Q: What sequence folds into this?
């Protein structure tokens, strides 16, 4: 296993996907897993989170907006991406003790839940892609 690096001089704002094309001495070509990086405004400004949680603090209703890191079913130069046509997101709300207090699955990029039954405090909301368990984003919110 080696270490590779490349500086993309002109990333687009939004999702940028990268992978390695590996060619063996016998001519066999394989591709590495795709890595998606989200860029925001500014020169080489990586977006660190693909979720927006609001309102924060929340009393009863909590909203979540997910910015998908890639278009499901998209094709890449050199071959298709083997992904389901619909991405299902796993959502977990965890308290400060590390216990999951609420969980859900959604195929939508917007989600809403009632947090009125949660005790007052700080919580962590994590979103994962259920297809490959990759973390899409996470954030904290305060329940009043």
A:
């Amino acid at each position: 296993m080696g270490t590779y690096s490349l500086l993309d001089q002109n990333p687009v704002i939004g999702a940028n996907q990268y992978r390695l094309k590996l060619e063996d001495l016998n001519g066999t070509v394989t591709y590495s897993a795709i890595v998606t990086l989200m860029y925001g405004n500014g020169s080489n400004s990586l977006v660190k989170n693909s979720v927006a949680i609001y309102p924060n603090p929340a009393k009863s209703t909590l909203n979540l907006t997910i910015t998908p890191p890639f278009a499901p079913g998209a094709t890449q130069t050199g071959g298709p991406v083997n992904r389901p046509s619909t991405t299902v997101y796993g959502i977990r709300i965890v308290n400060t003790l590390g216990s999951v207090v609420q969980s859900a699955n959604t195929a939508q990029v917007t989600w809403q839940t009632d947090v009125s039954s949660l005790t007052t405090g700080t919580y962590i909301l994590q979103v994962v892609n259920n297809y490959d368990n990759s973390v899409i984003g996470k954030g904290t919110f305060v329940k009043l």
Notes: The chain has no helices and 13 strands. The chain has a mean pLDDT of 82. The CA atoms of residues 60 and 94 lie 17 Å apart.
